[in-house]
Design goal:
Layout (H helix, E strand, L loop, with lengths): L4 E9 L5 E10 L3 E5 L6 H9 L6 E6 L3 E4 L11 H4 L3 H11 L5 H7 L6 H11 L16 H14 L4 E5 L7 H13 L3 E5 L3 H4 L4 E6 L2 E6 L2 H53 L4 H39 L20 E10 L2 E9 L3 E5 L6 H8 L7 E6 L3 E4 L12 H8 L5 H10 L16 H13 L7 E5 L7 H13 L3 E5 L3 H6 L4 E5 L4 E4 L3
Parallel strand pairs: 3-7, 3-8, 5-6, 6-7, 12-16, 12-17, 14-15, 15-16
Antiparallel strand pairs: 1-2, 1-4, 8-9, 10-11, 10-13, 17-18
Helix pairs in contact: 3-4, 5-6, 9-10, 12-13, 12-14
Length: 534
């Protein structure tokens, strides 16, 4: 059987009237499909519609085969046992009763024909996902957040779905857990639709769907192939834009030339009328004919100009303008060899960190399992948490970008927030700097509380990098979580201009490699230690 997902003329709007889809039609076949697009385009909403968590106001949604769905905001009941969370508790109980001699019709019906090995399959599935140590009788409250995501995935896989929906499944997973999930995706046989910004995950799919303006455009191949195809298409689209701009300029020149010629003819006709060199009836007929010809000539050039402008509008629509952040941050520079951070016998609330020096414009990746203390270390260095013992002393101006983007005042505009971080700059200077972060014109006056997730991240990053004094040590705590690919690109562009020391806690290896990490540190129960590049 060929498993697939299809939507036809799908319409959906939120109760406030905000339209998300208006006539969306697509088919995703029995392959691994990745869905990308800017934050707010409706990717998660689409998965919820397919899964039945939301109802469309019009259109049809179909999927062939059984459906599994792992939501982005998965919350497990901590009072449940693991087998209850996996959905196999009743079957285990029925098998135990049958084995004890109570083979009632009800117990046999609960087990069915295919679930006699459910416990073995459950343990094997948990093992494949790196959850070997989690017993079926343990409490869900004993598992970590990342383990909970994998437990939710295990529950879906145990149902043997033919169609599987995954919404940002690698969020909050450490490197080991991500690799287990990658393996599960690669071995899934059926129709898989995954929403993600994880480049390594998206490089394991068979096609990419680009959700933009309520329409999905499909590209064969993985994320790398999609980006290559997009680059070729963008180059062609930009050539069309340049050609259309040239045609608009030509038509504008032709219209101006036509007006000059018509003005000359009009002056000549008026001169002939004034000197009365021809009979009045002849001159009147000639004047009327000239006016008609003039109108046709002018309208012809106006129509050509309007056609050229429409062609330019169409060409610009084809050229996706995902702006990059282009800035210059010379005040963040740190001389080579200068100490920027010194840790001395540091013990964190989460455990030991040890002693360490960071010098010059090092770019440090801070890696480790969930709960190892990465965030705790960054917040201790920044002064938000107290150390158990020892010291953490930054030797240069520093800033921390936390996972929770709560540094800005929601009630203030972006330009007013920046005034708090950079009080020495005048208003025009602040606006000019914000424009480099794509907050141009009225966008700088928008209240921070009304910004989208990607915009809020960009606003917080702008406030930190433009702060006074300029940060020469910048610490980032899981910066790519919940960011779309375009926002990740913008973050990487901003960090290209940053000349200070970086310390980035992240499980996103593709991002870490992209920003030019020069030193890798792992934190575990022993403390901090240098490791080979990952």
């Amino acid at each position: 059987m060929s498993y697939s997902i299809s939507c036809t003329d799908l319409n959906f709007a939120w109760p406030d009237g905000d339209v998300v889809f208006d006539g969306l039609t697509f088919v995703a076949g029995p392959v691994r499909s990745g869905l990308v697009g800017r934050n707010g385009t409706g990717k998660s909403t689409l998965l919820r519609l397919i899964a039945g968590g939301l109802r469309p106001r019009a259109g049809t949604i179909r999927h062939a085969g059984t459906l599994g769905y792992l939501p982005q905001d998965l919350t497990l009941d901590t009072s449940l046992r693991v087998d209850e969370a996996l959905g196999i508790a009743d079957v285990r109980r029925a098998i135990a009763q049958i084995e004890s001699g109570n083979a009632t019709e009800n117990n046999l019906a609960v087990v069915g024909a295919d679930d006699w090995d459910v416990e073995e399959r459950a343990l094997a599935t948990l093992g494949r996902l790196g959850l070997d140590g989690i017993g079926l009788d343990r409490s869900v409250g004993e598992v970590s957040g990342g383990e909970g995501v994998l437990l939710g995935l295990a529950a879906e896989l145990l149902r043997r779905p033919d169609v599987l929906l995954l919404d940002e499944p690698t969020n909050n997973l450490d490197l080991s857990a991500r690799r287990r999930l990658y393996e599960a995706v690669e071995t899934f046989r059926g129709a898989l639709l995954v929403v993600s910004h994880d480049r390594e995950l998206l490089d394991r799919v068979d096609q990419i769907g680009d959700l933009r303006d309520g329409t999905i455009t499909w590209y064969g191949g993985n994320l790398t192939a999609y980006e290559e195809a997009l680059a070729v298409g963008q180059e062609a689209a930009m050539r069309m834009v340049r050609a259309a701009e040239g045609d608009v300029r030509r038509q504008q020149r032709d219209l101006a030339d036509a007006r000059i010629k018509l003005d000359r003819r009009r002056r000549y006709g008026q001169k002939m009328w004034d000197t009365k060199r021809e009979p009045k009836i002849v001159m009147g007929a000639r004047k009327r004919a000239a006016q008609v010809a003039e109108g046709k000539h002018r309208n012809l050039h106006l129509e050509r100009l309007e056609t050229a402008r429409e062609a330019l509008t169409d060409a610009e629509a084809l050229a996706h303008d995902d702006d990059d952040i282009r800035i210059d941050l010379p005040d963040t520079a740190v001389p080579a060899g200068r100490v920027v951070l010194r840790l001395e016998d540091l013990v964190l609330r989460s455990g030991p960190a040890g002693s360490l020096e960071l010098r010059g414009p090092e770019r440090v990746a801070l890696v480790g399992a969930n709960g190892a203390g990465k965030s705790t270390l960054l917040h201790t260095v920044a002064g938000g948490l107290d150390a158990v013992s020892g010291s953490a002393r930054p030797a240069v101006p520093f800033r921390l970008l936390p996972q929770r983007l709560d540094l800005l005042d929601d009630s203030l505009s972006m330009v007013d927030n920046l005034a708090v971080f950079a009080p020495g700059a005048d208003n025009n200077t602040r606006r000019a700097r914000l424009a480099r972060f794509l907050f141009r014109g009225r966008a700088a006056d928008q209240a921070v509380g009304t910004l989208s997730g990607g915009e809020r991240f960009r606003a917080t990053l702008a406030a930190l990098l433009l702060a006074e004094p300029a940060p020469q040590l910048l610490m980032l705590d899981e910066p790519t979580n919940n960011l779309d690919l375009a926002s990740v690109d913008q973050l990487a562009s901003a960090l290209d201009a940053y000349a200070g020391a970086l310390m980035v806690a992240s499980h996103d290896l593709a991002f870490l490699r992209r920003i030019g990490i020069t030193r890798w540190l792992r934190i575990d129960e022993v403390g901090l230690q240098d490791v080979d590049p990952l």
